[in-house]
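Tutorial handout. Part one gives the primary structure; part two gives the three-dimensional structure as tokens.
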Amino acid sequence: ALYSTLDNIVNAPEWQQGQYDLYNHNCNHFTDTISQHLLGRDIPSYVNRAARYAKTVLGPLGRMRRRMRA
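Part two.
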């Protein structure tokens, strides 16, 4: 059952090449998905804190920078 569960997660379309996103779909999100399937609970929220902060700070800065280039 364990290998089957892991195989299903690893081969799911959302975890294939090209789906990675530093803020919204990173290795910690993958770990959270595995934890949900195997343990029935999320990983601790602090694990992905850096990505949430970076998205909050860098997201608006990135949009401003793109506007300045146009």
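Part three, for discussion. The mean pLDDT is 85. The chain has three helices and no strands.
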